[in-house]
Structures are given as structure tokens and as C-alpha cells.
Amino acid sequence: MVDRVKGKLALVTGAAQGLGAAHSLLLAKEGARVLCTDINSNGAANTAQIINEQFGAGTAYSIEHDVTNVSHWNAAVEMARDNLGGLNVLVNNAGIGVAGNIEDCTFEDWKRCFAVNVDSIFHGCQAALPLMREHAPGSIINISSIAGLIASDTMPAYNASKASVWMLSKSIALHCAKKNMGIRCNSIHPTFVDTPILDGTAKHAGIEKGLLLEKLARQVPLKMVGEPNDIANAVLYLASDESRFMTGAELKLDGGISAM
After folding, report:
1. What residues form the membrane-spanning segments (predicted)?
2. pLDDT tens across 8-44, in order?
């Protein structure tokens, strides 16, 4: 299949690298025009440049975007209106991990984790929905985590924030359905994915990344760590009209961990 999201107008947060870059590239490859946003403005611009080089000028744009900042959200949505011509796909991908158990995690880290992972979706949906309603049907795709469904003793802030993303997605889905907006909302729950985040994890743990990937893979029934496109393919499905009957749901991309 080709052009699965032809004519779609998408905003992807955290698009400078990793999952966000993969989402942006695949959506563009399948026919969407994309606004790449990130607090790392150079990284977002680089993703947009790669897309335009591959798929033609004007396929992608970029903007510096602190997803915890309401004014930044308003600016990003206005840029989507002005440069894309509207908006009907919102991919809330930006997120951070915070380590520390319930005794070690600082309240500042707790608040920062919720600001980036949860508040960003609240602000983003409030800013984007008016424009998305003008260009329905639409799809909101929130990147949660398998850590939002399965707890760990070492990361209560991350667990709680990603669980909030899961339930917030359902509430948004029901609201949009009740108002007959033609806008769906679903969450995606990946396990370990080979992105630059794991570089920092390996460094923090004091081991080579290759050894870390082997260790993580042993925890997954399929005995592998995910690749960014494994998640981007799910984003593509949810952005497309193929998933028109799917809302308020969660896609677990965890190699079988949650089945254990």
C-alpha cells in the first residue's frame, strides 16, 4: 500500500530524533505533510530538511517547541494553519524519563516528568482541537509506554505519568466522540526501543550500548528490542483512515511483555 495518509496534515512533537523523527518520515513517505516540532529546534529543522529532500519542498516544516509552554503550542498550531493549511493528525510524542524510586525521586523531577509527559498533551489538545475540527476526520495519537501499564519500583514518576497518558487518551476520545467531532484519540505503549535515549541509559549504567540492548532483549518474550519504525508503523495506522473505527484504545508494542 502507498499514500496511506495522502492529504493528511500532521504535527509531530519531539521530532528532532528517535521516535519522533521516525514518525515524521514515515507519515511524509505515505503522503502526509508534516510540522516537526521539538525544543531542539536545530534537530527538528534537520528532520524537516531530510523529509523535503526526499519527498519535495513544502512537505515538512519545523518550529522550536517547548511542549510544556502554552504559547509555544499556540504558535505551533498557528504554523500548522499557515504552512500546512490546517491540521488533522496530532502525534504527542515528546516525553522524558525520570529515574529514582519513591524515596529517591525529587519532587522537582516528578513535576518535570508530568509537565513534559502529561501536561503537554493537555495543552496540545486544547490548542489543536479547534483547528482539527475544521479539518476532520482527524486523529490524536499519544505515545505512552508499557511502563504506563506495568509498574517498576525504580521509576514511579515515569510509571504514573505514562499511566496518566493512557487514561487521558480515553477521556479525550470519549469527549470527541460525544461532540461528534470526527476526531479519534488512541495511545501507543512501546517497550524498549533502540533510540538515542538508550545511549544515555547505557552511559548512566556504565555499560556499552550493545550489552544493554542484549540485556533488555532478554526481558522481552520475542527476544528483541524494538526499532523506531516498529512504533512509527503503528502511528501510521492510527493516522490513516484504516483505523477509523478505533478510538479510546491502546496499542501495546511490547514484544509480549504484558502477556506474561
Report:
1. none
2. 999 999 999 999 999 999 999 999 999 999 999 999 9
